[in-house]
Design a protein that fits this description.
There is one protein chain. This protein is of the alpha/beta class. It folds into two domains: 28-141 and 301-362, Periplasmic binding protein-like II (D-Maltodextrin-Binding Protein, domain 2, 3-Layer(aba) Sandwich); 142-298 and 373-417, D-Maltodextrin-Binding Protein, domain 2 (3-Layer(aba) Sandwich). Helices cover 45% and strands 16% of the residues. The chain contains 18 helices and eleven strands. Strand 4 and strand 5 form a beta hairpin. Helix 5 packs antiparallel against helix 17 (379-394) and helix 17 runs antiparallel to helix 18 (400-417). The longest helix has 24 residues, at 2-25.
Length: 419
């Protein structure tokens, strides 16, 4: 009897030893790509929470610098690397991925699982290309106005309101500009991204930059050149570009009154303050608007997508749903980032963050948010072309009228070559 029991015990022990490797073998490893994973921290939190909720999935992260991300991902995908899930950083990258058939459509999976799309609101339209959804909105940033309260106070100038016009913005920038050299204060800083310059035109409700008239850009480009070269209430474009200037470090020096930038900068300001990198007493307001026109801003939906070559579709789909759904949205809002999925509980998260200056995040949201570039297969090619012409115009190597004319001609060529 004793020998029999001993034999049973040995058998149980052997079975238990077999079970552990079997369970481990069943765990799927997903390869996930993003930018500034270690630097920003919030994506790390998202992945950690996903792994807790899905113990059968291990996520291997490919972290890349934000400035290099689109180009590096292009190389990685062209080389056949088996990245399963990744972010399409902007509409131009997203359109190119669709054009090259590198990401898979999600409509069948959405319908099969009955995914409630209501929380994405207007963001959903910005991930549709030819009525097909290739990614779900992970983030839904939009542009607002940041300002230095202490600088406004020192000059006795009232803070910007949610109804400030561009004309008022230009005059306010003059009032905040003073001094010379290292002690100089500038009323504003206009970053070198192309979107910073075509933003004014999109606010005019004349269409997007794929199909709308480029004449819409004229007034805004002229205002930007006037601010930089005539009023000198901002450093000029050519100097900023030559120096590789970056809005984050410049605004945090404390000598710039106003900066228009995306909502993602809120998180960076709070993080940099916690690390002792600045002590700017900052506030936020809606983006200035054109006199007499309904308010509008520009934005950028960041979709999370699945590689068309993935070997782990179901696991990849679970990660996409987590990152872009209510669970992911709650984590992003706690980190002062605007998610693609929004409801009242998400807005409440902003108010709970220590140091967040906005009394009501919802007050900054406007009905009309134009995408920097629409979800279109030619957005990438057209985006590069428009940026080239803006560089020529803002460095005074071409007149604004000539740049707009050439944009129109070059757009026709791009469309004809890609029909």
């Amino acid at each position: 009897m004793r020998k029999k029991l001993l034999g049973v015990s040995v058998l149980v022990l052997l079975l238990s030893l077999m079970i552990v490797p079997l369970a481990q073998a069943q765990q799927i490893t997903l390869k996930f790509a993003c930018w500034d994973y270690e630097l920003n921290g919030y994506d790390k939190t998202l992945i950690e929470e996903f792994e807790k909720a899905n113990p059968d999935i291990k996520v291997e992260v490919y972290d890349m610098p934000a400035s290099e991300y689109p180009d590096k991902m292009l190389i990685v995908l062209a080389g056949g690397e088996d990245i399963d899930v990744f972010y399409a950083k902007d509409p131009t990258m997203y359109g190119g991925l669709v054009l090259r058939k590198q990401i898979m459509p999600l409509d069948e999976l959405i319908a099969r699982d009955g995914v409630d799309l209501a929380g994405y609101g207007g963001n959903l339209e910005n991930v549709k290309i030819d009525d097909t959804i290739y990614g779900l909105p992970y983030r839904g940033d939009f542009w607002i106005l940041f300002y230095n309260k202490d600088l406004f106070d020192s000059f006795g100038v009232p803070y910007p309101t949610n109804d400030m016009t561009w004309e008022e913005f230009e005059e306010t920038a003059k009032l905040l500009t003073s001094g010379e050299g290292a002690s100089k204060t500038y009323g504003t800083y206009i970053h070198t991204w192309a979107s910073t310059y075509f933003m004014y035109g999109l606010q005019k409700h004349m269409g997007d930059l794929v199909e709308g008239p480029y004449e819409m850009l004229k007034d805004g480009l002229e205002m930007a050149r006037r601010i930089q070269l005539v009023d000198k209430s901002a450093a000029d474009y050519a100097t900023n570009r030559a120096m590789g200037a970056h809005y984050r470090g410049l605004f945090e020096q404390g000598n710039i009154g106003m900066l228009y930038m995306g909502t993602w900068y809120m998180q960076a300001l709070l993080l940099d303050e916690q690390e002792g990198l600045h002590n700017v007493n900052w506030g936020i307001a809606r983006l200035p608007q054109w006199e007499g026109l309904p308010h509008a801003t520009i934005g950028n939906v960041t979709p999370v997508v699945i590689n068309a070559r993935t070997k782990h579709q179901e696991a990849a789909w679970r990660l996409v749903k987590f990152l872009s759904g209510s669970e992911g949205a709650s984590i992003l809002a706690e980190n002062v980032l605007v998610p693609g999925y929004l409801d009242s509980s998400v807005f409440d998260k902003f108010a709970e963050v220590d140091g967040f200056p906005g009394d009501n995040m919802e007050a900054l949201v406007t009905e009309t948010v134009y995408m920097e570039w629409p979800p279109h297969s030619l957005s990438g090619l057209l985006g590069k072309m428009v940026e080239e012409e803006i560089v020529l115009a803002m460095t005074e190597n071409k007149s604004i009228d000539d740049a707009i004319r050439d944009m129109e001609l070059r757009r026709e060529e791009i469309i004809l070559l890609n029909q």
